[in-house]
Amino acid sequence: MKNLFFTQFSQILVVLSLTGCGKDDAPAPVDQLVMPTQAGFQMLRNQALSDLVQTQKFDAGEGVHFVSRKGTIVDIGQYELVDQLGNSIIGEVELTFIEIFDRGNMAVSNKPLMGRSNNGYLLPLVTGGQFFMQVTQGDQLVKPLNHYYVTVDAAHTGGLDMDMTLWQGEIDGTGNLAWNPVEIGLGSGEGDDGNGNPVWTDGDQAGLGFNPVTDTYDFFINDFGWTNVDRFTANSGLLTKIKVTVPAPYNETNAAVYLAYQDQPGLLAQLDLYNTNDQYFTEHFGFVPIGMTIHVIFASESNGQYVYSIKEVTIEEDHVINIEMTELERIGKDDLVDKINGLN
User: Fold this and answer.
1) What is the average pLDDT score of the chain?
2) 232, 261, 278 — which closes off a domain?
3) Nearest to 329 by CA among 296, 313, 294, 305
């Protein structure tokens, strides 16, 4: 898993010097759209992710108290870093950090919220924040000797949610991110220090606490990479499997379809299966609530810019949503993020 994280970030570095796609011109007419390519779409996603990167250099012997742009705190202790063979790291290292709280940036960087259930199905998650953390010395990836600590402001996602749990992300061969629940060590969270902070045991390798005094999620974990404070979305009604048909030039290599649920800004689901014969996106077993209003987000690329369509639909059983070529518009990344974040 670590190699996947490191490989992905190395790809991000390649595009750091590219010009970002910011606030944009007027939408391009459909007849001006250029045929999408897999490489072009991936480059847009890499650029969107690189735009979120924060870094800080520090001495491994001193550790670091890093505070992000949104107030997330990462604490790595003194002499707490080792190489892949377990040897202690000394000297200067660099922390790479990404935080995503909004579904606009999740969509443009292809970091949706799909968690693996006990039966292996991927189900939509509601987030308290997703994070990427990595420490390198030169081109060498280093790892924690024990664990490091992260404090997350819950105000970014509507306040503390006591049903949240801890997840780690895994990127598959197609570049899609799925979330796996983190197993908490025995004894985790037993007791309280009197200030709302959980007391952990020395043997714990991961833990998540809720601090109502500071309105924060406080977790520690013994691995770098993608980590998420999340829970499964709660649906009590009937569910269905939907299909989203797309125009002929588009497929799973150069386009994506996401679902934004009404009144749930911390959720972005993905339809990760593509049917080549009938040209539609779908998912594995049917997780979409019947009667719910959702926004279907189609995203692709055209000559270095995003191409998109957003449709608001109320879900019916076995619903088929059609994305037509005439509905597609070209847009800059920042404008697309604003549009998605502005959905109700």
Assistant:
1) 88
2) 232
3) 305
